[in-house]
Fold this sequence. Notes:
The protein is α+β, with helices and mostly antiparallel strands. Among the domains are: 22-179, no CATH class; 360-418, no CATH class; 449-529, Immunoglobulin-like (Sandwich), CATH 2.60.40.10; 534-640, Spermadhesin, CUB domain (Jelly Rolls, Sandwich); 648-724, Immunoglobulin-like (Sandwich), CATH 2.60.40. The chain is built from ten helices and 38 strands. It has a ten-stranded mixed β-sheet. Helix 6 packs across helix 8 (340-354). It is elongated. The relative contact order is 0.08.
Amino acid sequence: MKKFIFIIALFLSAISFYGQNRIARKVQTLNSEKAAFIKFTPLIATTTPVDNTIQKTVNNALLATVNKSVIENIANNRYENIELDIPYSEGTITVQLYRVDILAEGFHTDTDKQNNVPFNKGSYYRGIIKGDATTVTSFNFFNNEMNGIISSNSINNLVIGKLHKTGNLTDYIIYSDADLNISNTFICNAPEPKAEQFSGQQRGAQSPAGTLSDRCVTMYFEIDNDIYLENESSEELTINWMTSVFNNVQTLFDNDGITIALKSLYIWTEQDPYEGESSFAYLNQFNQVRPVFDGDVGQLVGIDPGGLGGVAATIDGLCSNTNYSYSDVNSLNFQEVPLFSWAVQVITHEFGHLLGSPHTHGCYWNGNNTSIDGCGTSVGITEGSGCEEGPIPGQLDGGTIMSYCHLVPDVGINFANGFGAQPAQRIIDNVNSSACLSTDCINTCINTVASYTITETTDTTAIIVWTDESEGPWEVAFADINGDFTNWQPIDVNTFTATALDPNTYYKFSVRPVCPESTAPANEQLVFATTDDYCLGTTFTDTGDIDGNYSNRETLTRTFIPTEDTNIIVTFTEFDLEANFDFLSVYDGANADAPLLGTFSGNTIPGPFESTAEDGSLTFVFTSDSFLTRTGWNADVTCAGIASVTDNAFTDFSYYPNPANDVVNITSAENITDIWVYNVAGQLLLHNTANSNNTSTNIASFAKGVYFFKVANGTKEANFRIIKQ
Length: 725
């Protein structure tokens, strides 16, 4: 049989557009040191014609039979270096591989039924086509199976895997994913970053091949029940599939000098709790079900209806509470054909976002906010501030991992291109500047604090309790909402009292584990506010205060309880939330179990609201999503029947009678220009204008009940409640 050994001159490798050859350098070093590569032929091409089902799925595929004794030999002996002959087309591709350890220290697999599931570790390899420094390849061996991907400009991504047939252990297929007759429609829904976030970064070249990032990113995967079922409801086969995919993912990061490792897996062996019609729905549910996990970044991986693509919570989620993502691998197979490279693509792409890279067709690159390529733009997907469409790579070049070139006919994404020079450098810089990461994937320090509870607040103190699967010790700190955590204090119990606080002020509080000196662990923040004597009149704003915006991913609860035997009244003067995504709910009582008065979004001013609870309290719960923010709200807090002493209060203000049958009289030492009347649902019923310090409003036509009045003159304001008899 004719043998193809792809060779390329070193100078061509050096000037290659993508030129990312860290793995090739490793192989070249092994060869220069005369290291032994033990030669194997694990697959034998068959003469069996490709059936119609496979031909409809992929062109030019080759069928092969596996030599079970060879793969078991490699899996069990874990040779340091091997050389494989892989049949393809009319010849053979020879690859040289070295063994790698893909797992972080303390790796474990859990399921919905058992922790620390035992498993037989496979043998994982990576390398290049022999003699071709522009290529990259990964192979994985287990007792009963093998798989791999070989990537080069001439063959794109060559997939080697078992045919998907029940009980099949011997029949394999070898094909280029460029020859698939089904479309890879993967779309990523990661949020667009702001161009100014990258405006100061210059183009530059990638770090020299062979240079590693200084820090290591550990990764967590949660595997849905559908993937488990596709792997014959076998924990062993599911772990084999996921670790095989991860070796390919790690290979692509490693080839660009970025160090990652697999820290933990979680497998749903029964129906998982995830459902929805969009990648955002799955992303948000993943965060709710698994707010903490054993890894620096995490990803829910599933097979879900609709081809949902993938989404990362943010661009650069390291050392933050937005360190999670979701990937719909669509299907592990189409008919009998394994779609292995598709899973590698979407998973690597979403982690590329979490580690700091936006899309290459976006206007974020080259030091001038232009694009690297035009693949996404050419199919109608634009990002950034209207830069010109970038170039489309040639058919033999292919796109990079963070591109949309898989959507462009006859282009595709070639794994040998890696991330590309600029995205790779951006990721390396981001990883190196992320202090929560370890330097060795061994001394990791993951924050597993799952939740906080405020058990008591006063105008100057707050008591906070937290839950953590670990038993400490911890460090705690608190600061003004706009301040920095500078007062970290050691603590051995899961409760802390913050003292010397200011009234009616937002603070943030955080807990982190005690870690090695070289690591500053990520820390989730609790935002809370101190109380005040609300019957003296005070303001209620979002965390951005009067002029700023609130933050993404906020969950904030404020309860206002009167200091006298009366009822709290909250009157909004400004209101602007991201419509249909950020919400403020109002409850008639001291917590969110009280009757709901309404949930509000957008920019329509709600209220005013007056408590009818026995203790006169109102509770407000605000939540924001991971994306856009707005200016929030400003409101006045007063007590019924008690004049406010704030600067915008009327002088000598009074109203009567209360209760009233028809006319409500309003007097003040200052001129009154406007009177608004609302029902208890916050709906505006009446707006009268006046120009007097002695006016009245007729409510004879109103039904019996409670009504809220708001009186103003442009600079002064008063709010009160009237009972209609």
